[in-house]
Amino acid sequence: MFHRDHSPCLFLLLLLLSTLCISSISHSQQSTWASKKMRMREKVRTMFYHAYDNYMTYAFPHDELKPLSKTYTDSLSELGNLKLEHLPQDYNGSALTLIESLSSLVIMGNNTEFEKAVLWLSENLKFDVDARINLFECNIRVLGGLVSAHLLASDSSKKLFQGTYNNQLLFLAEDLGKRFLPAFDTPTGLPYAWINLKYGVMENETTETSTSGCGSLILEMGALSKVTGDPRYESAALRALRKLWSMQSSLRLFGTTLDVETGEWIEFSSGIGAGVDSFYEYLLKAHILFGKEDFWRMFHSAYVAVQKYFRHGPWYHEADMRTGKATYWQLTSLQAFWPGLQVLIGDITAANSSHREFFHVWKRFGVLPERYLLDHRMIHPTEKYYPLRPELAESTFYLYQATKDPWYIEVGETIVNSLNLYTKIEGGFASVKDVTTMQLEDHQHSFFLAETCKYLYLLFDDSFVHETNYVFTTEGHPLPVLSAWHEKLPETYIPTNWTFMKRQPEASRISSMSLQVCPAITLKSGQHIESACHIPDARSDYRCLTDEDCGVDSTTCARRSCSMAGYCGLWIF
Ligand code: DMJ
């Protein structure tokens, strides 16, 4: 027994010991997580180079690798399942996978390979070929890859080049952008889905296209206008987007396919997956990148309609744009990007609950099947494949950024392990033909390097997004958020003590969109910079009961409000 007089001392001692104990546990837990993240990052790096090296050995300069037969496919002209009947005999491909790998090489710190790739492309890549390509795919993969890599290469703070960078990628991007323009020459301004790079729109070309084909061009073409000073690309993309917007139903819904000549809908049923997905994504991301309020208003209205008519608990079904009645009860692999988009607007609860369901399906099958019939609880009989898609990894990255919940690191680990177990072969990574048998297919899609590996790497090591805020295009190509690209805000809207970060050649406004949901920025130097208008939410986990609990968004300086799910975000309701 201790003497009574000693008990306060003993209590303090015990308290001290237990505090030390707790802090050393959390310290050791933290370092366990840190070393796990580092180990996983290296695993992802190995995956990326296994895919990249095999592509370079067996497929380059053609478009994509066939990892089973160790040969190539010139898939840029085949995207959309059409064959390359217009390709000349001596066509050597457009080095699609190399272009798609550029920003991943930078993120993984391989400046030497990046510079080598840029030099090769500047000397060899030609767009003056008699090839019929899909505008949407070519825009997100090739134009997006080139513009993003150009912006990275010309960021002098990154020191990516030993020699001098002479805007070679920009010239290529501009050449490609010019070849896109004839596609927009329609009575409606909606672009043809297919064009010939040399001859423009072919005779008897199909007039049918998709919603995402018309509504997901603004990031790449807008960025091209900003860097070239030529407004034609942004205007064409914007005109198409506005026309599409005018075609919404009274329920504020959109269809999936339409006719570019008549501006009439062809397929009235739609959801958040194939044919529509990136249209929603680009409304929000265009708002972040270009700072136009209009994009936010469009996104918000479209988003509310999606949540109202498509959402069923954590799932999203399809509905008829005219009636709002459910049409198809299907989960598709492409829908898995949605939680990532929800993170960008701060609705973490909704994002988390859908993400968990997608992950549940991943665990059940080992990977995500392309289409799962929710009403029959079975995989779609003909869409049993998994072509190495990135969407679940993408959402996992965003959710981890927003919450720092180690659960998402475990999700990432499961994804990495499944990819290595089921899809890694000697010649690269192969798509899964049938998730019920894990039979493989001879195709390594370029988005595996542009997105799947990139998002997994960023999940475990996000240092790339520490100093600059980026918007990732739908193909995972980063575009920096620059104040010079933002629409000028009215004087009264800008706080006088607005914080600027010195950046050559222009100053960029400190913002936090990429890191969610209002963090300040600590530079590598240790310097801490806070957005001047930023007022943090009352609670650090962004939970709220009323709007009073929410602060002011550090990027837009707009007042955040409390969502129905009880989280602060840029909400209107
Ligand atoms: C990618 O090409 C893009 O993410 C696109 O928006 C749709 N999905 C594929 C990969 O799944």
Can you describe what's shown?
With 573 residues, this protein is of the alpha+beta class. Helices cover 42% and strands 12% of the residues. The chain is built from 15 helices and 26 strands. The strands form 12 sheets. It has a 3-stranded antiparallel beta sheet. A 3-stranded antiparallel beta sheet has the order 12-13-14, with no helix packed on it. A hairpin with a 4-residue loop joins strand 1 and strand 2. Helix 2 packs parallel to helix 4, helix 2 runs parallel beside helix 15 and helix 13 runs parallel beside helix 15. It is globular. The N and C termini lie far apart (62 Å). The site of 1-deoxymannojirimycin has 10 residues, from helix 9 and helix 15.
Summarize this entry quickly.
This protein is α+β, with helices and mostly antiparallel strands and 573 residues long. The longest helix has 52 residues, at 7-58. The relative contact order is 0.10.
